[in-house]
Design a protein that fits this description.
2 copies of one chain form a homodimer. The first copy, chain A, is mainly alpha-helical. Chain A is 63% helix and 9% strand. Chain A is built from 8 helices and 3 strands, in the order αααβααββααα. A 3-stranded antiparallel beta sheet of chain A has the order 1-3-2. In chain A, a hairpin with a 2-residue loop joins strand 2 and strand 3. The two termini of chain A are 31 Å apart. The interface between A and B is large, with 90 and 87 residues. Chain A binds a DNA duplex through helix 3, helix 5, strand 3 and helix 8.
Chain lengths: 190, 190
DNA sequence: GGACATTGATTAGACGTCTAAGTTTATCCC
DNA sequence: GGGATAAACTTAGACGTCTAATCAATGTCC
């Protein structure tokens, strides 16, 4: 790499120093990033992106879902699903079909090629999981799972409550507008 | 089927059904999203975006860091920091200064306005944390923290190992190339 | 039976993040 | 001292994600 003679050590030293007293949120966020990266690095060797994995995973369990249902199962919003599905269709891993009875819904089906990926890709995710929890006490792991689930539930409840009070996740436009106060024309960099 | 009369209940039902046996990764990922959203919704009322928060948080603890150091503390790559700092400077929350002795480094300092945000914003994060862990047994919470830390460490070690075997997180260009149809020269080394 | 509401898919556009590839400045070493 | 090397910042461009707005099909209800 560059100057990092021992990147791992460096990362760990950083963590040990900075995190233990910090809020749970940072730990969770960084764990997510680490898990995603570990999977990504393995998926790319099979020409599958992380964004594709998210949906293939669901479809391997059950296909023929509508895009909306698929979004729900994958835990993302519909435009995300839409974009990923377009790519997946282009790659020949899924087909989107409409039925004559209902031309509003679009049903997503795996192609044989798409289904065939399961055997190659699932083991990669299992490997990542194995590495991630290596040496972790099963009881602690179960506790962690329970805590994460509780966090998700607590916050889902909170979000519902906020919504009824009209607080909402900001639109990207609202965020963009935030930059308009006190604007200074950049800075002259020689 | 998708009549969300009670979105929260719906979300929870989904979770209860789908998650407990699933891999840790999905739980972690969804917890991250929930935590980020909960904070976002509160920050936006003070005209601060989540991307800004990430860096302000570090600077409130200690400012005068270089961009590189700040990136490290925030746990993101340098271009991310660069972009965020540009916006923060435009908003008048930070200043980037160069010293005559070393014009390579850029030191980031909070402005009084930037520093003043701390009092308003930190309580929001504390509130989110409180809500998130509401009703969670402290011992379990400690266990969860330990598990997450272990996961991060395990994967950091793995990533270092992978790097020495030339596996890397894919470049966006490599991922883009994945969409180009069934042709796949790949295997070309840089 | 037709106007209105609702649902599902799509488009538009932004954010936060990343890797790779420059720039510019400082440091090293012969 | 001057060219090679490295460090720090910047630019370029992509991905995954989101909200809001629009389009198209299907209900609903008087």
């Amino acid at each position: 790499m560059k100057h990092d003679d021992h990147p791992t050590q460096d990362i760990l030293r950083h963590w040990r120093a900075a995190v233990p007293n910090d809020r749970l949120a940072h730990l969770v966020k960084d764990a997510t990033r680490a898990l995603v990266r570990a999977l990504q690095v393995r998926l790319v060797e099979h020409d599958v992106s992380f964004g594709h994995w998210t949906f293939l995973r669901v479809l391997w369990e059950r296909d023929g879902l509508t895009q909306r249902e698929l979004s729900h199962e994958a835990g993302v919003m519909e435009p995300t699903t839409f974009t990923a599905l377009q790519a997946l269709e282009r790659l020949g891993y899924v087909e989107r079909r409409q039925l004559p009875e209902n031309r509003k819904n679009i049903y997503v089906h795996l192609t044989p090629r798409g289904r065939a990926l399961k055997g190659k890709l699932v083991p990669l995710a299992e490997e990542v999981n194995r590495i991630a929890v290596d040496g972790v006490d099963p009881a602690q792991l179960a506790a962690a799972r329970a805590v994460l689930l509780a966090v998700i539930e607590n916050l889902a409840r909170d979000e519902a409550r906020q919504e009824s009070i009209e607080r909402r996740v900001p639109s990207t436009r609202a965020v963009a507008r935030m930059g308009e106060g006190t604007r200074r024309p950049k800075r002259a960099r020689p």
